[in-house]
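ugh ok fine here u go
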Amino acid sequence: MGDIKKVVLAYSGGLDTSVILKWIKKTYSCEVITFTADLGQEEELDGLEEKAMSTGASKAYIEDLQEEFARDFVFPMFRAGAIYEARYLLGTSIARPLIAKRMVEIARKEGAQAVAHGATGKGNDQVRFELATMALEPSLKTIAPWREWDLHSRTDLIAFARENNIPVPVTKEKPYSSDRNLLHLSFEGSELEDPWVEPGPGSYQLAVPPEKAPDEPEVIVIGFDKGNPVSINNEQMSAAVLVKKLNALGGKHGIGRLDMVENRFVGMKSRGVYETPGGTILYAAHRDLEGLCLDRESMHLRDELITKYAGLVYNGFWFSPEREALQSLVDKTQEKVTGEVRLKLYKGGVYPLGRRSPYSLYNPDLATFEEDEIYDQHDAEGFIRLNGLRIMTLSGIAGKK
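structure:
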């Protein structure tokens, strides 16, 4: 431990990371610098620097990374159509590489030998933080207190805090373990640990229950440029502002709720509830526009890679050569995914109503059910016979047995 003189800690200011800050100082006898990323979690960050310093930090970084998060992490992932196990839009997963990236940058700047996080030994986040650190700066050591210390419960943490004069705020205990950022809000724990039990009303924060959504639908138009959303109702917006606007619209109409049991990378199943109102709208709109702009083989090839891409994000391999290679292929397919999609938001649903693009591949002269002079329907006969040749051959061989 003597070779560690300075550590950069991912810090929220809550009980866990406050205890971790003090524990690292005592255990490693080193300097601790805290880093707090504002990713749109809507938590009060005022006073966090003073709290970190009073708990023993030598310096405290608090940075607004919302635009970078949306532009350089969320949007590339959405261009890929990434969705984990056909349902989860990866709201927690995609935030971790950005936090790790900035921690590494601060560690380099400050001459730190290690970074630290508060992820537990059961979850996916420990893997995501540490794989990102290994990819960006393999010389840095990672300190993961939940895998090292002898504090095993909230009671233990509170006792440690009091013994070390760390303020323990008297607040109503939250029933869920939650993670929030610009893209989503997740809930785990409490009644959700029983997969049969319905989520409680406290798990509705970003989106109202569909039965409480307005009785009148709302129609919006989302504009895209090369696969990225750039406007709502013809109003140009930055990446973060656009996602926030869609969160408000989607939440109002009860859109983006997901209750699922998923497979964690570490080998266990877990049940979580996710609220991703804006992301759900974006996913539907982007997918719809691709139907107009992408040729069949490009779309099908990209779709074959969705499971792989989503798995890389979920499992923490954002900064891997394979994810970067997939991103290059994806972005090539997105060069002409430009246009507008008109959608109806209603009672938890997102319904595309229309789409248009200067790069539309839709030819009404070919698609019409009326008479046309382009498509000779007799050509289909030879097309079908050639595609059926293999099947007829197999059938003939089987019939001889």
